[in-house]
Design goal:
Helix Hairpins; 4 domains; alpha+beta; Beta-Lactamase; single chain
Length: about 425
């Protein structure tokens, strides 16, 4: 009897031991699967065994599936966020409550020419500007949007350019934790807008000055005549002066209207075959009296087979007149030497008008084609003209599909280079 029970116990012990060994192996396999899940994000193979083991394995499979789904969503959202940030023309920055930079887009780094990534650095370290720090700090402290305009000198190569940025900072707060507060900061480059505003103000001031001068002269002479001038010779001289300044006003208004039409592309050009050589000689005939008065020597060089160009002859002759008149009036000396040369290359005709005058300062050359811009303001006003000639020349040449530029060294004269296409097709 006892021997029978011992045999039964031994058999049961063997079965239980075998079951324990099998279960232990399945648990070890599950443990390895969990590690594989943590490292690879997926399960390696199916696990067989007791029901509880299979259920645990099924739960792990579901966890793996959800993990892959979360990873896919995170990757898609990360890609979308990076795509949005990369395509924005504004600079974007996110700073934490400790004023450390947590995220920036590439545009912001370009705006400020940042040499290295600003991530994990403080706002003050990145921008070295108290205004930026103050705007972000106030938005974090108050929870209210803050904005300001920043002026900063940004390095572009070897030079520094003054830039204007509109800064807007908005607080991003978590409902669960105040320590997770963030500031979303948008930098909008308004440099071009401020530049256009400055140009507009300068234009209004220049137009006002140009109109006021002849008007005040005409008004003064009229008051003198009204008061009763008895000297016929003096009265006639007054009337001639008034007529001259009235013509100056009329010329200024005509130039302003022409420039406005050219800038808005509302002017109609009448293209026809045009001989540049003949056009230059017609312009020189118009300037003959001025050439004689200044004692200038004007030479022309044209190749025999220079092609005719499709152009509005009136407008191109106006450009030539403005360029030659400018060279004659601002040469700075009597007996100046001026040359007009033409050549053709690659379907274009190149015209060079050179003088041996005082030249144009390097700082003035980028602005020489702006409206009313004068290199030597006092001397330029005394020389007459509206101050719009070079601006009209630039827009006229561009309307023909060409380009115009200036080459000059102070004290070594100036050369205006005009390039026009032979054909408009």
């Amino acid at each position: 009897m006892i021997v029978g029970w011992l045999i039964v116990l031994l058999v049961l012990s063997g079965v239980l031991g075998l079951f324990a060994i099998t279960l232990w192996r399945r648990v070890l396999l599950l443990r390895r699967e969990v590690r594989h899940l943590l490292i690879e994000g997926a399960l390696s193979y199916e696990v067989r065994g007791p029901r509880i083991v299979r259920e645990i394995h099924d739960d792990l499979k579901e966890i793996a599936r959800r993990q892959r789904e979360f990873a896919r969503r995170i990757a898609e959202e990360d890609f979308s966020l990076r795509a949005i940030l990369a395509s924005m023309v504004e600079g974007v920055l996110i700073a934490d409550n400790n004023m450390h930079v947590r995220l920036v887009n590439e545009r912001l780094q370009q705006m400020f020419s940042l040499p290295k990534s600003p991530i994990d650095r403080t706002v003050m370290e990145v921008f070295r500007n108290h205004l930026v720090h103050q705007v972000i700090r106030q938005s974090l402290d108050t929870g209210e949007p803050q904005s300001a305009e920043l002026q900063a000198e940004i390095s572009e190569g070897e030079q520094f350019q003054l830039k204007h940025f509109q800064i807007t900072s908005v607080s991003l707060r978590s409902r669960d934790s105040e320590s997770l507060a963030r500031a979303l900061v948008i930098f909008h480059d308004v440099s071009q807008i401020r530049s256009l505003e400055a140009v507009r103000k300068e234009f209004v001031a220049n137009v006002s000055h140009e109109l006021r001068t002849p008007l005040s002269i005409i008004t003064g002479y009229l008051e003198t005549l009204i008061d009763g001038g008895d000297d016929r010779e003096t009265n006639l001289r007054f009337l001639r002066t008034m007529h001259k300044h009235a013509q100056r006003l009329n010329l200024l208004i005509e130039d302003l209207l022409a420039l406005s039409k050219l800038e808005s592309r509302k002017i109609s050009l009448h293209f026809e075959p045009f001989d540049l050589s003949e056009g230059v000689h017609r312009v020189l005939e118009q300037l003959d009296s001025l050439i004689r008065e200044s004692g200038a020597l004007v030479s022309t060089t044209f190749p025999k087979h220079l092609p005719r160009i499709e152009a509005d002859s009136f407008r191109i002759e106006q450009v030539l007149y403005n360029l030659l008149d400018n060279a004659l009036k601002h040469s700075g000396k009597s007996g100046a030497k001026i040359s007009v040369e033409a050549s053709s290359a690659g379907g274009t005709v190149v015209v060079r008008i050179c003088d041996d005058g005082v030249g144009i300062p390097l700082s003035d050359q980028p602005h020489i084609f702006e409206r009313f811009y004068r290199v030597h303001k006092d001397r330029s006003r005394d020389a007459g003209g509206t101050g719009l000639g070079l601006s009209i020349a630039k827009h006229t040449v561009q309307a023909h599909g060409g380009s115009i530029a200036v080459q000059s060294r102070p004290g070594a004269g100036a050369t205006f280079v005009m390039i026009l296409p032979v054909s408009q097709t």
